[in-house]
Amino acid sequence: MDSKQPTGPLAGLRVIEIAGIGPGPFCAMMLSDMGAEVIRIDRAAPPDQGIDIPVLSNVTNRGRRSAVLDLKSPEGVEALKRLVARADALIEGFRPGVMERLGLGPDELLAVNPGLVYGRITGWGQEGPLAKAAGHDLNYIALSGMLHAIGPADRPLPPLNLIGDYGGGAMYLAFGMVCALLERAKSGKGQVVDAAMVDGAASLGAALYGLLDAGLWRDRRAGNLLDGGVPWYDSYETSDGKHIAIGPLEPRFYDAMLELLGVTDDTLRATLRDRSEANWPRLRAALAGIFRTRTRDDWCARLEGTDVCFAPVLSMAEAPHHPHTVAREGFVAVGGVVQPAPAPRFSRSRPAVQGPPPAPGEHTRDILADWGFTPEEVDRLSPRG
Predict the structure, then answer these.
(1) What is the reported pLDDT for 385?
(2) Any catalytic annotation for residue 148?
């Protein structure tokens, strides 16, 4: 861990993360990046996730220390309760009822620490007909209506796991926990934050649901302003097999694009000027033909930095090296692994990655000692893990 004192806006906050996958670790990473002290409670034998990620490459585990406790043993449960007594918040991502069966549910832990903010992240929520069913990001966003809206006309496409796990899950959990911590400053009381990915994914679609109600959004794919339906909000292939993205939704930005495309053929100019829906197929074909005449770098030289609403479609390997990203120091190297820098930024506080991802149990003794356990108590816990 970085020996410097955290300078982010959450410096001084103590958070316990019960190790999980997906949104729980991402939320803990966000809080750590903002300066919170996060300790991760790992299992001695982590569950099989179907993928073996090297420790340093497990980026969402960055910025905290790890202790191993056996939460199925009375000693492990008691040790966690002692940690909770000195914590501000806890994150857990098990199915509903698991923490209660361990004797570590909200009732038990709020009795230990009435000011605790108990953050829970699940796919379906703590109650409801599907609450205890297994699922993943794709399933939760499918139920929210968002998956149906993404992809070509013939089928929905998974938008990675950005909408459910991270946007609708981790970020809503982090937001909810900070809200509860702010409320605690007034009431002096902790509470439970129930963040469900199905809820968060639907919430992310609030504006689209409003447009749907107003008759300004069709309940189908590839037929709207933002879903690839209109030809002027889409990506196009260039002559070198790469892609660019254009998005001049407003007429003045669209006009700016037409001027910079340099089209002189009157028939083609007429096609480009007609944005009526009946002309969309011809307009898309015309734009595709134009953009295939130059390389991606050529189009960057002509359009980047203008009001065309343009960007090159960069690969993940390319993105950290773009001049704009470099100027903003948007990526950092931690333990030799290039990864996104903390976001957002502040005028006074300075978020920072507090260290590389830990190996499970790497800091067990240090954490227990720092959080008030005597050397003898640490020794007694060690044989049990």
Answers:
(1) 46
(2) no
